[in-house]
Amino acid sequence: MKKYQAIVSTAMIALVLASCTEPKGSESAESEVASETKEAAETTESRPSPLMVKQGKVAGKTIKVQYGSPAVKERELWGDLVPYNVVWRTGANEASFVELAEDVTVEGKKLSAGKYSLFTIPKESGPWTVIFNSDWELEHGHFQYDEKNDVLRVEVTPVWGDTSQESLSMEVENPGIIIRWEKLKLPISIK
């Protein structure tokens, strides 16, 4: 009887140990990818200004934008949180960037295919300056901005509405890239 109990106990221990090992082959790889994806999503969700990626076509040309999307949170934005006449990263956290699959014209000026950080200089009145800068991987936004890397600067007239949008958005839609936040609409024409 003791021999039988020893065999059953050994078999039970073997089963428990076998169930604790990682799956082999593609199941292990799939669970690892799922885990990394979940961690990335949790990191993004825990950011006060979520990382957003938008992609679309304008005039048949593919455009992608990536930006941190801050919220108004009852703050005074223009001229306070976002000062006038100072380079703004146009979003939150790291610099926002635009990826162009092919050459385009922005507000009538040529811009080659590639990736560019996107900055603006807000103004209290009149057109804003929109900047495309070749240094697109800036971890700290405008704190690392260097004007010598500007590839293109254009002037864009903001439109102020009556309704307010809580979170900043950048949409790829006609006429190009439209930035909206609070009562601002900044339509950057791309062809």
UniProtKB/TrEMBL annotation:
Chain segments carrying region Disordered: 24-49
Biased composition (Basic and acidic residues): 35-45
Domain of life: Bacteria
Entry-linked Pfam families: DUF2911
InterPro entries per UniProt: DUF2911
Protein name (Swiss-Prot/TrEMBL): DUF2911 domain-containing protein
Originating species: Algoriphagus ratkowskyi
